[in-house]
Design a protein that fits this description.
The protein is about 40% helix and about 30% strand. The chain is built from 3 helices and 4 strands; from the N terminus they run βαββααβ. A 4-stranded antiparallel sheet has the order 2-3-1-4. A hairpin with a 6-residue loop joins strand 2 and strand 3.
Length: about 100
């Protein structure tokens, strides 16, 4: 079974809020989400081409594990926490399955 990935892209349009958002994501949200979802790994990125764009990526062992996490109560709680703390930050969610991996 190939790995599956959950990707959340958030747009923090107010530059004055990016530092607080970054700290919240680093110290609270990413560790909570990674533990709650039971992921193998998680990453966060800030876009170099658009400084307002933040991306979090969560790696699941397989599609079934990701599907369980997306339908579970932890997902609802994490979304509610995000909406409470960052109501003006828009985001998109995408789900991917690994198609190919090439190691150099």
């Amino acid at each position: 079974m190939p790995a599956a990935y959950f990707v959340v892209r958030a747009t923090v349009t107010d530059p004055a809020k990016r530092k607080a958002f970054d700290k919240w994501y680093q110290t609270e949200h990413l560790p909570d989400a990674a533990k709650s979802f039971g992921v193998k790994r998680a990453w966060r990125f800030w876009s170099l081409s658009d400084p307002s764009l933040h991306q979090a990526t969560y790696e699941f062992a397989d599609e079934a594990s990701l599907d369980r996490a997306m339908k579970g109560d932890d997902m609802k709680r994490l979304v509610a926490d995000f909406n409470r703390d960052w109501p003006d930050v828009t985001r998109t969610r995408e789900i991917f399955v690994l198609a190919e991996e090439l190691a150099a």
